Amino acid sequence: MVRLDDSVITAQLLETRLGKDKALELCPHSKLTPSALDYLRAHGVKVERRAASETAIAAPVSPLPPRKPASGNREFKGILCPNIVILDEKDRINYPEMERYIEWLIQAGIHGLYPNGSTGEFVRLSWEERQDVVRLICQVNKGRVPILAGASEANLRDVLKMAEFYATIGVDAISLVPPYYYKMSNTSLFEYFAEIARQSPLDILLYNIPQFTQELPLDLMERLLPFERIMGTKDSSRDLPRLINTMHRLRAHRPDYVVLVGCEEILFPSVMMGASGGTIATSGIIPEVITEIYRKALTNEIEKARELQYRILDLINLMLLGVNFPEGFKTGVAVRGFDVGPPRQVMTGEERQYLLQLEAQISCVLGDMGYTVKAPRACPTTNLPPIVGR
Fold first, then answer.
1. Residue 223's Cα: distance from chain center in Å?
2. Of 335, 322, 338, 320, which Cα lies nearest the Cα of 282?
3. What pLDDT, on a 0 to 100 scale, did the predictor assign at position 375?
4. Which residues lie below 8 Å from residue 108, measured CB to CB, with a gap of 6+?
5. What is the pLDDT of residue 52?
């Protein structure tokens, strides 16, 4: 019989420790993850738990798993790119073009990658496709930049299964929104995140995006601070006062708490007020400019950073407004020279025609910035200085 005292038992741990044994003894505080339960059933392993009195002389068991991200301790600072997913004409992931796109982002200076976020259309992908996207990105990345992967599955069991998978392929942390569709009480929401924090093999970034799911109250986030696995938050509420209060209240207890902004229109003021950086969809189109705004904010080059912040607003508004999200951003990626393929969701003929007009408008704006683009049509003369290559 194999005896385990680990606080969290995963399928990977069982495979390593059990060998051919078919009997397992656990301390009363050990938690079996969903994949561990599946492993035990599949291999016919008999499980016994020791009585609490028998563990009095055992080594103390931590209530939280040790803080060991899959690829070592990585800092989540700077600009993390929430990448789009590129499809082929048969509605399948276009792996060669995805590889080319991810490599381009890294070479352009992105500080981190964020697959399976809103821009990555994770709710429109199957379980296997979500895994395939992250596996591909880890393979292309080869550990060069941190990877924060969305693990917002429909239930706690699947969140943990996805986190365990991510831990085996080189992901550094997971991002989690509150469970969507069914609204939960704040008490249940606390227990949901607390249980994931107890069992997750990876660090966790809480994701506040009230446009798509329920709000993450600051009081609740403060209550979760004792869980070391929860290392920060991403705020896409488009609410600068909310972001500033998040930093003020949570860092009073955890000075190293990561706070990322998810709204490009307030990137510069957010960093100036102390944000760790941002997960910025526009960084998938103009990574050079978005990372430059971050750098100039850090070096206190206020006028130059402010100028860049204003210069990107027209581009953001074109990609964000008047078209189904994230098709405007995918169109921007196409203007930069990538074959983004067809949309996954159904579109009308009028919407497809609008995207063609949008491509021309985005080309004009990017050409105005100094980028080489494909034949911008009927672009107005602005007399603005280029911001690329200066």
1. 22
2. 320
3. 57
4. 287, 288, 291
5. 56
> What type of residue is 206?
L
The pLDDT assigned to 181 comes to 86
Verdict on whether the full-model pTM lies above 0.85? no
Closest Cα partner for 83 from 105, 63, 56, 109?
105
CA-based torsion, 229, 231, 236, 240: positive or negative: positive
Euclidean distance between CA atoms 134 and 114, whole angstroms: 9
Cα–Cα distance, 5 to 250 (Å, whole number): 33
Residue 6 pLDDT: 67
CB 86 within 8 A of CB 99: no
Q: Give me the residue label for tokens 């706070």.
A: 259
Other beta carbons less than 10 A from residue 142's beta carbon? 9
Instruction: Dump the DSSP string for 171-202.
Output: --EEEEPPPPSS---HHHHHHHHHHHHHH-SS
Tokens of 69: 């991200």
pLDDT for res 12: 66
Asked whether the beta carbons of 351 and 323 are under 8 A apart, the reply is: yes
Closest CA to 382 of 372, 366, 368: 368
Q: Using CA atoms, how far apart are residues 341 and 324, in angstroms rounded to an integer?
A: 15
C-alpha span between 75 and 172 (Å, rounded): 10
**Domain 78-300, what architecture?**
Alpha-Beta Barrel (3.20)
Tokens of 49: 């738990």
* Digit-coded pLDDT (tens) for 287-320: 999 999 999 999 999 999 999 999 999 999 999 9
Low pLDDT (below 50) residues in the chain = 53-72
pLDDT for position 68: 43
Contact 257, 227 (CB under 8 A): no
CA distance 123 to 75: 27
| pLDDT for residue 378 | 65
Q: Which of 271, 259, 264, 240 is nearest to 326 (CA)?
A: 264
The full set of domain ranges for the chain reads 2-55, 78-300
